[in-house]
Write a structure and sequence with these properties.
- The structure holds two protein chains of two kinds.
- By secondary structure, chain A is mostly beta strands.
- Chain A is 0% helix and 51% strand.
- Chain A has no helices and eleven strands.
- Chain A is globular, with a radius of gyration of 14 Å.
- The N and C termini of chain A lie far apart (40 Å).
- By secondary structure, chain B is an all-beta fold.
- Chain B is 0% helix and 50% strand.
- Chain B has strands at 4-7, 10-13, 19-25, 33-38, 45-49, 53-54, 62-67, 70-75, 84-90, 98-99, 103-107.
- In chain B, strand 4 (33-38) and strand 5 form a beta hairpin.
- Chain B starts with a strand and ends with a strand.
- Classes of the chains: A mainly beta, B mainly beta.
- The interface between A and B is medium-sized, with 27 and 26 residues.
Chain lengths: 123, 108
């Protein structure tokens, strides 16, 4: 069974750096074509793709946020970490991690999601 | 970046109605288009991939069509459990990805 679970602080102050961890099971991020991505959703608003890391440790970022984001992986721990610098109240959102594969039938689709973690940015 | 425009932004329909949502891409994305259902307080769920393929376990009342820039998502007979927000997502220029703005579906 494939699962992903997000963890991190529920509250951060403006200008601080947010660090979120996605812990997954049921698949290996060493498998060719396998990727993990981060997506966020402000309250009552749409989904926004943030970043992706692939099996080969290549990293890709949203054009609008790439100066603030860093994604990394620890394959031995089955974890993917996202850091976002200089947090602002507009970054208040539920942050999801999800699996996406670049090969196979559901290529390009987020087929398995974590339950999400709500992050509030406030002083 | 490729922009995805979904319409309508919200929709009210009766149980048993046929419901249609559209998604338009700012450039040709072939069939690289997926649809998701998100119920309140839950993570999105993949329903349709590659514009028209039903994900395993998804009821057959859901369907998708289209290619190029114009796509359609249909529920053939609306059920009470279909109340949710629906999103399209393009992956033409992987690994960068964009979502539509969502369509909120309510029961009339």
């Amino acid at each position: 069974q494939v699962t992903l679970r997000e963890s991190g602080p529920a509250l951060v102050k403006p200008t601080q750096t947010l660090t979120l961890t996605c812990t997954f099971s049921g698949f290996s991020l060493s498998t060719s074509g396998m990727c993990v991505s981060w997506i966020r959703q402000p309250p009552g608003k749409a989904l926004e793709w943030l970043a992706l890391i692939d099996w080969d440790d290549d990293k890709y970022y949203s054009t609008s946020l790439k100066t603030r984001l860093t994604i990394s992986k620890d394959t031995s721990k089955n974890q993917v970490v996202l850091t976002m610098t200089n947090m602002d109240p507009v970054d208040t959102a539920t942050y999801y991690c999800a699996r996406i594969r670049l090969v196979g039938a559901t290529r390009g689709a987020f087929d398995i999601w974590g339950q999400g973690t709500m992050v509030t940015v406030s002083s | 970046d490729i922009q995805m425009t979904q319409s309508p932004s919200s929709l009210s329909a009766s149980v048993g109605d046929r419901v249609t949502i559209t998604c338009q891409a700012s450039q040709d994305i072939s069939n690289y288009l997926n649809w998701y259902q998100q119920k309140p307080g839950k993570a999105p769920k993949l329903l349709i991939y590659d514009a028209s393929n039903l994900e395993t376990g998804v009821p057959s009342r859901f369907s998708g069509s289209g290619s190029g820039t114009d796509f359609t998502f249909t529920i053939s007979s609306l059920q009470p459990e279909d109340i949710a927000t629906y999103y399209c997502q393009q992956y033409d220029n992987l690994p960068t990805i964009t979502f539509g703005q969502g369509t909120r579906l309510e029961i009339k």
